[in-house]
Amino acid sequence: MSIATRPSKRAPDELRNVTLERAVARYAEGSCLVRFGETHVLCTASLEERAPPWLRGQGRGWVTAEYAMLPRATLERTRREVTSGKPSGRTQEIQRLIGRSLRAVVDLQAIGERQIVIDCDVLQADGGTRTAAITGAWVALHDCLAWMQARAMLSKKALKDHVAAVSCGIYQGMPVLDLDYAEDSTAETDANFVLTGSGGIIEVQGTAEGAPFSEDELLRLLTLARNGISQLVDLQKQAVAS
């Protein structure tokens, strides 16, 4: 199948143009503006000098996340969820995913009885907002922990590994990496993969939109995801080294 079968003209195993811009929020302990093509997410990490009530007295901290999409992040304006009084089921699912992904690579004992809150605000959406958020959130978290380390607030190294995420899917019968909206909205299969820098699997979300997908297809998608996440981790390393 030719490369031109993808709306973006990318090769099946090609990521969108990805950039990670650090220190974009003046007051946050860590921040990153992540761009996956036309999907742009602002990630900030805020340190709170208290653990959640249910963790108090246990000598360990917590990392959690909140996710929101700005009203004109999409083609048509969407209503702010705050006006409805509670986040949607989709929003709750995504912010829990981001939190789980980050906690998997943090030594919570090392940060003490504190909480780090990662806010992921989608400025512009073109597919893959949750995977972009996780990838950018790691950079914001890294910088927050580095801020704490510089002030002797950590008992030991708290960040154990990188974590990044990418979407894969089957589009017009072809396994492809990093779906944009044009592909995501019509893909036969859509999956999100969250992996550590060392290759550990944190989470796999996969859905057949049409016919069920096979085990072989799942493994092909996982291979695409591993290659894509390896590239994303390299970009994270370059970002935090600059």
Q: Number of domains in the coordinates?
A: 1
CATH architecture heading: 2-Layer Sandwich
**In angstroms, what is the radius of gyration?**
18 Å
Strand order of the largest sheet: 1-2-3-5-4
Find the CATH topology. Ribosomal Protein S5, domain 2
| Structural class estimated from helices and strands | alpha+beta
Your description of this structure?
The chain is an alpha+beta fold and 242 residues long. It has a single domain (18-241), classed as GHMP Kinase, N-terminal domain (Ribosomal Protein S5, domain 2, 2-Layer Sandwich). The chain is built from four helices and nine strands. The chain has helices spanning 89-103, 129-150, 181-184, 215-241, and strands at 18-22, 30-36, 39-48, 62-69, 115-124, 163-171, 174-177, 189-196, 201-208. The chain has a five-stranded mixed β-sheet with strand order 1-2-3-5-4. A four-stranded antiparallel β-sheet has the order 7-6-8-9, with helices on both faces. The model has no long low-confidence stretch (mean pLDDT 94). Belongs to the RNase PH family. One of its GO terms (biological process) is rRNA catabolic process. Its EC number is 2.7.7.56. This is Ribonuclease PH. Keywords: Nucleotidyltransferase, RNA-binding, rRNA processing, Transferase, tRNA processing, tRNA-binding.
